[in-house]
Amino acid sequence: MKESDNNFDGGFYNAITFQKISRYFYLRKMKIIARLFNFLTHFLFSSTIPSSVEIGEGTYCSHRGIAVVIHKNSKIGKNCIIGTSVVLGGRHSENPGGPVIGDNVYIGTGAKILGPIKIGDNSNIGANSVVLKDVPANSTVVGIPGKVI
To answer: What's the CATH number where 141 sits?
Structure first.
């Protein structure tokens, strides 16, 4: 197997691709076109991924990104995998902001990462985990609330 065989980008028809197109127009102050792509993302994939979200190269959502919700202030690193029904969200207005996800992070199906927290590089977030605190690099988190194991 060649090295390039392991680099799957989710294909063209997925929520991340639509978000990147939306971000392209957003950064060029073409907000109406950006909102159109946001609407298409919501309509086609039942996902909410705002144009303001920074997403690194090689990051993709499994199963086209169905039901993924990402906070407008989130940042996602390179080569991350985001499962279906994942929420990267805020917690409350007193502590605004979204999660910052490092590089090479796997976020399992149904996981919730809430608040302005940091997930370190090369970490794994288990399916249906609820993460409320920072996660160090090279860690695995499972449970409700999420605990490093």
So the answer is: 2.160.10.10
Cross-strand partners of 142:
147
Q: Order of strands, edge to edge, in the sheet holding 81-82?
A: 60-61, 81-82, 106-107, 124-125, 140-142, 147-148
As for how many domains the chain has, the answer is 1
For residues 133, 58, 127, 63, the Cα torsion angle rounded to the nearest 10 degrees is: 140
What are the 10-residue block averages of pLDDT along the chain, 149 residues in total?
A: 47 79 92 91 88 88 85 91 90 81 93 92 93 92 89
Q: What is residue 2's predicted lDDT score, i.e. its pLDDT?
A: 39
Cα four-point dihedral sign 41, 43, 127, 52: positive
Sheet with strand 87-89: strands edge to edge: 69-70, 87-89, 112-114, 130-131
The pLDDT score that the predictor gives to residue 9 is 53
The domain in which residue 72 lies consists of: 3-148
Q: What is the pLDDT of residue 129?
A: 93
Verify whether residue 63 is a known catalytic residue: yes
Nearest to 75 by CA among 92, 60, 45, 97: 97
Lookup: tokens for 3 = 């090295």
